[in-house]
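In line with agreed milestones, work has continued on tokenised descriptions of protein folds. One protein thus recorded appears below exactly as we store it:

>
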Amino acid sequence: MSKSVFRSVAMLLVLAALLVMLLTRLDLLIAAFNKFLGVLTPFLVGFIIAYLTNIPYMFFMNRAFGFMDKPTELRQSRLDEFLARLRKPLSLILSFALFFAVIVLLLSIIIPQITSSIQGVVDNFGIYYTSFQEWVFSVAAKLGFESETMSDVFANINELISQYTGGDLSDTSDIVDVGTVLNGITNYLFPHIFDFTKNLYNVVYNVILSIVVSVYYLANKEMLMNQIKKITYTIVPQKYLGKVMRTVDICNNKVGKFLYGKIIDSTIIGLLCFIVLKIIGIDYAVLLSVFVGVTNIIPFFGPIIGAIPGVILLLMIDPLQALVFIVIIIIIQQLDGNIIGPKILGDQLGISGFWIMFSVLVGGGLFGFLGLLLSVPIFAVIYMIVGEKVNGRLVTLGYATEENVRVDPLPQVAYEDGHIIADDDDEDEIVFVEEDLPEENTTDEDFF
């Protein structure tokens, strides 16, 4: 056995052993990766904050305070030097102040409304629950279900809810008191209070650290970009360098525009939902609209996730309102999918609904909320790059031409004695001239 064959066999055995180890200990690998991702969370969140803040930052740098940065040869006094140095920190301060001012303004408007809505739900939960129970019994009676079965179901639900709230929901006159609810919840959570405090501390710590990191990102972005370029030029072979930089540019365009577009789109959907619910007179319009707007950021499943809490709540208050709410959400989502979304996002993704669903399920399952939010644009980038490689390969092998490679499905091709035979029975089909099939060449140039 030659040395080259021996090395190839040894490499295959090593790769096979590694693959078996990965498959048998996949849970440990995922746990380690999630741990690593948790450590990097402040840097990832900080990067997202810096990315979103970059637009006002560039506006202040180049437009609002562009006059402060005179060319070096035109700076005639210390004041000119001072203004040139002041431009960057002033732009940073104002851009972050504007970013957090918008967030604080929205929270100051929304949070009191949400608090009032939650207070109303808690205060009237007993009445809502009893009304819902009576409605279910009436519907079950019309459908022929036995009342004893439904009584057992609600008895179990009553016991479960009473365990956490301390209220007796089986009594129509019993209105759950907020203090009783909080007392019941506190008693239930007390054994887990240490874990809760620890998690709260981690959340606060990560938020503060993310903000600090975002400031450093934005303040040093030119230096960081220059360092990343130096590393890239050093590591990546020159013949692949252009394609790597183009891939980075695609990621920047797709992910960035998707995030900005989704935030604007979700804000519009939330406001539109609030206006419609308020006009029609649906209860808790603010609370339901916040659910719908926030979850709309999540592609594909977002509207469903946002509608479920509202439907459950309105079913307890008035089933007719729940039905109207479902109809409103369907109409709004149709407007979003066919008019509002395309106008704002355009055809940024370029992938079908199936792949959107696939990427959301995989991304959310592996990486949580960030996976739900970023999996679609990231998958769109991968889809685009792989699609270009596949299409280029089809052209190289002679199965298609540059003009028809994007036809879906591909033209029907007949083979005979190793030749491609033109299919000209249908004038609409793309016609191939008879030619020898090219030999498959798997060099790097064919894939990159």
User: Anything to note?
Assistant: The mean pLDDT is 76. The first strand starts at residue 414 and ends at 416.
